[in-house]
Batch of 3 targets.
Target 1
Amino acid sequence: MVSRQLFSLVRSVKLPVCAQFDPMTGSFKGKTEIVDVIFAINWPDGRPCVYAEMFLLQKAEHVKLRAEDGGSLKVTAANLSHLVRFCWENKRDFWDLYDDDFFLFVQGLRCEMRHPGSAVRRRNDNTVGRIIETALEFLSWLQTRISLGRNIVGPRQIMPQIRLVEKSHRHQRGGSSVRLTYPFTPTSDPPDPKRPMPSNVRNQLWDGVSNLSEKTQPNLKQTERKYLRARRELLLLIFEATGCRPGEAALLSVKDNENCVATGFITLTTLKRRKTTDPKRRIPLDKGTAIKLEVFIYKYRHGLLESLRSQKVEVAPKDKVFLECRRGKPLSRGSLIREFQRIAGAAGVEQRACASMFRHRFVTNMVKLHLLALTQHHSGGTRAFLTEGDYRTILKRVATFTGHGSEESLWHYIDWAWEELEVFDYVNSARELSRSVETAMCGLKALSGRVRSSDVSDVGDVMQEVLMELENILVTTNEALM
């Protein structure tokens, strides 16, 4: 049987490190260590691809590992699996690849379509370029560590089987260097910048939550259906209120946030910081969202776990907020991304919409607030009067809430914030009123779906939440008018 995915994550593996000679017994004794995360790679027929696994073991010493999904090593394993599949399909050993073979490998990556009969490519040229880099890194490791005496890849001077050329590479923060690259690597596509989530798409997503609530799911119990609906609502709220990444939402801790109404903060794990232990950050949370988070934890999440335990299901929530409906296990980053895509599909969103656009919206809004505060405290302060130092001060403050290691990657948000401020240049109180009404409408849309999909016994709870939404509007309105 041919396997589609060739790599799999393996946790807590005991591996031999070295052998020590014992003079008392005259024998060697092996020494082992526990490796938190490794990836197993198979050939399509199921046999282990030992050389690829050895390469990943060494690579693991230099990249960010994560027990949940493998971290950066997962990307390397996924990229390398394409070369493994190509060699298997063409009956080639890694060290028997030549220029013609590698050219066919690259063309196959570029020409593969999303599905038979489709006109949409499975991957863009930027992705192809990253796969090529991983394949060349592996082949270079192979000729250095395993296939000694064979020049598989390299510059023309060493007469390699796959010839590389020198190319100048410009670094993101200035400067340049020369490195060996494959001459037929496709030109990188200019990235399509993701803009902040537009308000109309945001409102459509709440329609999607409502639409999904109306769909009957006979295979789920009533408690599970309620939990699923509440989980979708909270997911959108958290994305917008915190600008967190999907992976950070997946790691959201119950213990850290069970009293967020009293503290006024939400605590998130910060990813992409290349540290042994992921740091945490605290973000101010409006009272309405904090209440909904606590209600979800104590009512819907607790109710789901109790229901599953009554069905003799062995649950393992591991202190995570977002759980699977059927097994009570934490949802992964990929599961939350797919959940968002289901919401967007149910909403009929045709334009680009992804969770990271909520992050851009959050960061842009924070920069806008700081720009307003700065211009209000400086008489006659406008865009022309602000200096680079002013902008750096703003971005450093924002970075503490967004989890960015440096403010350098936030500069484009300055332009986006000014664009929105120049378009919506009405008074601040009106802006706050508009925001509060818009937020409340999204909540009421979700509640309308709940009414249409719930039993009569749930109407009292729904009305209680309607009153809570109206109270939030009143509080926000009074604050805006003060």
Target 2
Amino acid sequence: MAKKQSNLKNDATKAQPVEEIRIGAIKAAIWRNDGESGDRQPQVRFNVTLQRLYRTEDGRWHSTANFGRDDLLVLMKVADAAHTRVMQLIGEQREQQQQEQPAA
């Protein structure tokens, strides 16, 4: 029983993506990673994972990082939308950092 509780606790504390972009069965998840730059300043990075969702005969949903020929154009569109959104998030982060810095 303790094993089930620890698994439930781990599921509740798992990181969630900042955003997800989905077209059909192709999905991009945008993840925020906080870190430090070389000068010890906080720095935010964003990573993207791409996956294809599919349903098995028993009705359960699964995902894979394998894409077929017919998935490639949609994959490209999802990747492009994810790139655009990451660039927007970086811009928003820079604006927020500039507002937080005291005037010289």
Target 3
Amino acid sequence: MSTTLVHFLTTDKLRLPGLLYEPKTPTKRAAIYLHGCGSSSVFYKPVMNLWGKQFTQKNIAFFPFNNRGAHLVKSLHQETGEAEAERILGGTYYERIAECVNDIDGAITFLRANGYNTFYLIGHSTGANKIVVYNQLSKQNPVSKYILLAGGDDTGLNYEMFGEKRFQAALKRAKQEIDRGNEMKIAPKYLYPEPYTYRSLYDVLNPDGDYNTFPFYEYLHKQRLSKKPLFDMYRNIEKPMLIVYGEQDEFCFNNVNGCVEALKKNTNPKSHTTFEIISDTGHGFDGKEEELGKMMTEWLS
């Protein structure tokens, strides 16, 4: 196995870093890994080396990269054709989930240039949500299979945490500020405890937005927050999927089985989907990383 630090351009010319694990025997297959939001970064996860070894042993290249939502706030370079790249702010507090299409398509373009032609998408946490969004919004989707790890309902979690009045107030204020041209300004702490920009805050909270791909709260509590059909984008997926949750996932409203059942009931019948729950672990699959890696590589093989 060889490991290389690489950089590539997204389709809107952001420069992103990644780790490319390649097997000794040349292969055309590559698995792209999408991390979650918050302070996530593939460069702080030792499990990347473990999974890189497991994937390459199955003759599949493994490509985790830091998307534009890595870290809470991150300065990124955007190529403009000028001698010096423009600096823009990225990270969780600035990202909108639909921008994942630019990141994923850029990763695929990079891998194609390096001889790969068969692609798999793996997404953990918000990365799983991004797979659903990518499947819906990508105009040219060359991915063969999806692996969704612990996809979550951030909209529902925020609603449960703040309650109806505070949730609706934050949602309304964020929309008003966006309409006033203030989308890149930081929302005040009394509105939301973390320093999200108004555009990113609205993206996360909006029940009818792209972020709300797994509306578990609405399904489990039989309480509608959105007007759109539940699991509408998820139900459009026709590609094969492996969906995995930890038995003790702390973001599943104390009902992992209920969340998995919701997905089973809303899975497109054209999709050959496998569901797994790994015992004695939570959202991050701590302590079960090797088991999960084996599960993923055997399913892809």
